[in-house]
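Long-time lurker. I teach an intro course on protein structure, and each term I like to show students one example going from raw sequence to a predicted 3D structure in token notation. This year I'd like something fresh instead of my usual example. Would anyone be willing to generate the tokens for the chain below so I can use it in lecture? Attribution to the forum is fine with me.
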Amino acid sequence: MGVQVLAASTDSRFSHKVWQEAELAKMVPGGVPFPLISDATGQIGRAYGVYDEESGVDIRGRFLIDPDGVIQAMEVLTPPVGRNVTELIRQAQAFQHVRETGEVTPAGWQPGKPTLKPGPDLVGRVWESWKPAMAS
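-- Reply from a regular --
Happy to contribute to a lecture. Here you go:
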């Protein structure tokens, strides 16, 4: 997809190595194909607003940052709830599509599905162009 993925936590690089070999390798053959960065001082977590001063750890957060260094999306979850990798990939694809075409993607958009062309004619008429899938 032409994206760079990095993971950071307050765990040491040694903990990351053990986690990669003992845990991740069981979930992802060969382990994750991206760097695990040690944020032992919490400096990265503080910069992104996900460092918990009381417990001294980074809480779960993910950030989509465009090639210009601008955060386009972010999600922060407390430890009991896992993240949705499929949604992360969908959002990355949507942001890439928007950047390449200038079109906008409605909620739940998937590659190959209709997009919207922003402009004054769309205001108040999105419903004519986009029919969201309704949950049953």
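Some talking points for your students: The helical segments are 13-27, 43-47, 85-101, 126-129. The chain has a mean pLDDT of 86.
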